[in-house]
Amino acid sequence: MLRMTRQRSAVQELLDRTDDFRSAQQLHEDLRASGSSIGLATVYRTLQSLAEADAVDVLRGDDGEALYRRCARESHHHHLVCKHCGRTVEVEGAPVERWADKVAEENGFVDVDHTAELFGTCGRCAGHQRTG
Amino acid sequence: MLRMTRQRSAVQELLDRTDDFRSAQQLHEDLRASGSSIGLATVYRTLQSLAEADAVDVLRGDDGEALYRRCARESHHHHLVCKHCGRTVEVEGAPVERWADKVAEENGFVDVDHTAELFGTCGRCAGHQRTG
DNA sequence: TTATCTGCAAACATTTTGCAGCGAG
DNA sequence: CTCGCTGCAAAATGTTTGCAGATAA
Fold first, then answer.
1. A64 touches chain B (CB under 8 A)
2. Are A117 and A81 in contact (CB under 8 A)?
3. Rg (Cα) of chain A, in Å, rounded?
């Protein structure tokens, strides 16, 4: 059903060696830059199918742009993302899950999903800046 | 510096009597439908300035579309949104704030912001559906 | 072989912007 | 009166889609 093409493996391999969240367009540029000939539409289509298969995590940037990342853990988790360098740490969120459940119950909601992501400045980037 | 025009107050008044998160285009349609003549660009510009002034909350839908809502509380809070009818409850998130601080510290991040929103089915909508 | 994938370009949807005229202060 | 605001239409993004040809299985 899913064919393994040159393009598809190029995208997957790039994601495997990329640590931060990147847009479809950035990934397309990265691939072109590293010699892979691939169309932008193919990148979009590939990312879409990877996202559907839960093989990549999708985040929405401030401007609504979709950002993709291949995460190490398969189970539910959240992200701590550096606003400056994009470095991303996968984190557990047990307190968030408990909070979500409690709030849902208190308000008579069922089947409640949640999003929770953290954005800040990593130690490395903080070190490079003026101390303010 | 900010002029109070007919269009601007129309948008604000509409937001005041709207309970759920709505897109710029929906708000524009609502205004047109209720007889207000206003351009779509003006709605976008007004929402943008309201958002900058923290007078409205902005959320990103699944497709990246920006959704706006005038919230009762001025202080930091989160939302529990019904996926079916859009009904929205403003909720406190003390456990989330604590979690964010802790995770940030453990990973050497500073200046950490967070997003945390809940999406589910409200009691009213759950009642209307088959029990499964 | 053949159904799926690819690349391109055109279509789309949302949001932004340039500019001439309007109108709040 | 003046400068910011408005409306329109055009442009800029980001993403999706139609189709003819390429290709994995």
1. yes
2. yes
3. 17
